[in-house]
Amino acid sequence: MKVQFLPLFLAGLASGALPTIETYGNKFYDSNGNQFFMKGKFHFVPSGMSYQLRPKDPLIDTEQCKRDIELMSELGVNCIRVYHVDPKADHDGCMNAFDEAGIYVTVDLDTFNTFILPYDSYWNTTQFESYSAVMDTFIQYDNLLGFYVGNEIIAKMDQSHSAPFIKAAARDMKAYRDSKGYRKVPIGYTATDIAELRPMLQDYLTCGGNQSEIIDFFGLNAYEWCTPNTYEASGYPKLQEMAEQFPVPIFFSETGCITGPEPRAWEDMDAIFSEPMIDDWSGAIVYEWIYEQNEYGIVSYGPPVDQAIVTGDVFDGFTRKGTPTPRQPDFDNLKTRWAAITPKGTPMSEYDPSRVSTRECPKSTSGGWEVDGNVALPSLDETFSGSFSPSPTVDPNAQPTAVDNEEDAAPAKELVAIHAAVVAGALMVALWL
């Protein structure tokens, strides 16, 4: 959807210099070996928010970031997600402010002009260089939690042939990261929740046994839990079944269903951070921060204005700068819900990554999933030709290993919004500024 931030608040870590985050098995861990759920120093509450006040880059206005951070801290955000950024801009002010507040950030690598197309798919040098520029800019920040190579590229069954291009982008960006000697910042993907393509897409992006080609984490944009609801009736049991012992961290990269005028009670947060989901899910990102046309936001910067007015602070009929004001009761409902959640993680020293299971690459189905097995990934500058060749055989049961030492390393929607989400032990937020 929009640019998102994943703010992650660690108790006692609001003085800057947050520990870096890595993946190990199907969990996030900080550099101290603590599982990252996103709240507290040792026990994190996965809570995040989508943050994209401005369509092109919400991380360039330091004073605005500080205003939003104050309210995010009150809410309990520990991580935010940003959908689009300008790699040429100066982000030091905002990134340092988030770091000092104990908030992590995840960033999409694509732009409005470089995302992977769902039809006539390709992965070319222009895209690679654009993604690389974003990585070069943000890799310096310790509170950078991860990168996304795409968001909701596949939204229909007849678009699933683009999956190998998503995987190729992940392969090449991981190779670029390692060739530059950068730290192993996780690189993943966020998907539309399409029942007909579950669990094929998540399995495909992590199958094949080649660690250099698979994504490092998987985010699901799911709106199945609508207030009022229960775990059994929500559809979450099916999502949990598909996530059990998943080989990489999986989390709700967007959540916060709205079906009518009733306020959101956020009961799904209790489910995500308790048994059985807490063992397999890494939290959730709430959609969203800023209140705009879709009416999902939990803060506003003033009443709606004439859509004909377009200024530096106004876009699409809504002001996107100033003092954020909570929209009630959604804001306080979420604040209360998050404050009551205290999940306990598993220290890295006690976690056995061999418990997770790499799935077989899914076979194609009539009128459904279009990629037949472990096909050869497209090379750079390759365009979809209508079919894929089989990939060389790789052990599909290869177990994930800890992140290598750094020394060993040689579609975006034009909307302005803020998402709030939680990832196991972490809070994610996306903001459009």
UniProtKB/TrEMBL annotation:
Residues 343-372 are annotated as: Disordered. Gene3D superfamilies: Glycosidases. It is found in: Cell membrane. It is an enzyme of class 2 (transferase). It is a lipid-anchor; GPI-anchor. It comes from the Eukaryota. Residues 1-16 form the signal peptide. GO terms for cellular component: plasma membrane; side of membrane. The keyword Electron transport does not apply. Splits internally a 1,3-beta-glucan molecule and transfers the newly generated reducing end (the donor) to the non-reducing end of another 1,3-beta-glucan molecule (the acceptor) forming a 1,3-beta linkage, resulting in the elongation of 1,3-beta-glucan chains in the cell wall. Belongs to the glycosyl hydrolase 72 family. This is 1,3-beta-glucanosyltransferase.
